[in-house]
Recover the amino acids of this structure.
């Protein structure tokens, strides 16, 4: 651009007000420069702009910048959990296992390794703990699920283990693993959405006794790394039976969820629900939930039609349905009128 000397009135006889507007526009325009940024395929030059508007140092990158602050976190929020042991978790998880097999010093704990081999029904050759640990790593690398078996065996035997249980849970969370350490630190279970487990845990804590034990067993069987849907569904029903026993025909020493449904259906006005009836009856709604749980247990009885085992999804739905019914029972939400 050629330089033009400005006269007092402006450029080439320009009117003063026009010259003033031109100089203001010049102060606001972008000062274009080149900046070198790192891309996946190497270094490249991109065009950036520094905007000057009377404030020295105010700047923003223009077109050409591929990375934006916060984009990694946004991508992680949409990421599906990883099943088995993904590559980004393999070495950190082995480091956790390795640390769990060592004593306070740098030496391996021979007894821990020996017990682990017995629990896993495998043979670790030689008497050197270093050699045995090396063999164990190779054994794990042959099959992705074996490393999870080792982790679970260590949890079953050592649990909290001076804080190593919480360290493992933190590692699994950061890796977005599909698995989580159980509440009592003795197993792995499938991870669920935040808040879901807490609601079931509240029902377990509130109920205590038999109802709480059955509901906890139902959760563990439904969400364990190797779920047992049939047992989970059965335990869910037992939890409801234990929680509702004192509210529905307590004189019947052989109550089942089925007899409870029969008794409430025969005379629902004998009971009341904590939420006042509106367009829908609270007692009838609760009765419908009980029927859904009872009738949905497809493996309970034989008959003309063939039975089938409950699916994992069915058992998990049953656990959450049972958790609500248990909470209603132990809190007194359902009671005699």
């Amino acid at each position: 651009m050629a330089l033009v000397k400005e006269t007092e009135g402006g450029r080439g006889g320009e009117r003063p007000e026009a010259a003033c507007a031109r100089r203001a526009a010049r102060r606001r325009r972008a000062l274009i420069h080149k900046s070198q940024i790192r891309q996946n395929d190497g270094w490249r030059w991109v065009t950036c702009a520094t905007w000057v508007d009377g404030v020295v140092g105010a700047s923003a990158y223009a077109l050409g910048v591929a990375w934006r602050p916060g984009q990694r976190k946004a991508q992680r929020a949409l990421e599906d959990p990883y099943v088995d042991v993904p590559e980004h978790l393999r070495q950190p998880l082995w480091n956790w296992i390795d640390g769990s097999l060592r004593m306070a010093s740098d030496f391996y704990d021979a007894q821990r390794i020996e017990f682990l081999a017995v629990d896993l029904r495998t043979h670790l050759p030689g008497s050197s703990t270093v050699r045995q640990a090396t063999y164990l790593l190779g054994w794990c690398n042959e099959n992705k699920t074996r490393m999870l078996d080792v982790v679970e065996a260590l949890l079953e035997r050592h649990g909290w283990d001076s804080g190593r249980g919480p360290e493992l849970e933190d590692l699994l969370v950061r890796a977005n693993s599909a698995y989580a350490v159980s509440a009592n630190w003795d197993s792995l279970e499938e991870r669920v959405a935040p808040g879901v487990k807490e609601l079931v845990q509240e029902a377990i804590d509130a109920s205590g006794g038999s109802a709480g034990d059955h509901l906890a067993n139902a959760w563990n069987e439904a969400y364990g790394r190797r779920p047992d849907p049939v047992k989970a569904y059965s335990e869910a029903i037992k939890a409801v039976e234990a929680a509702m026993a004192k509210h529905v025909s307590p004189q019947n020493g052989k109550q089942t969820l089925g007899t409870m449904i029969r008794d409430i259906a025969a005379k629902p006005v004998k009971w009341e629900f904590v939420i006042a009836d509106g367009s829908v009856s609270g007692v009838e709604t609760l009765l419908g939930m009980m029927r859904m749980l009872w009738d949905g247990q497809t493996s309970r009885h034989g008959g003309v039609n063939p039975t089938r085992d409950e699916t994992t999804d069915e058992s998990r739905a049953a656990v959450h349905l049972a958790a609500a019914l248990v909470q209603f029972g132990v809190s007194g939400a359902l009671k005699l009128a």
Notes: Residues 281 and 333 are 13 Å apart (CA to CA). The longest strand covers residues 30-39. Confidence is low (pLDDT under 50) at residues 1-9, 29-63. The chain has 13 helices and six strands.
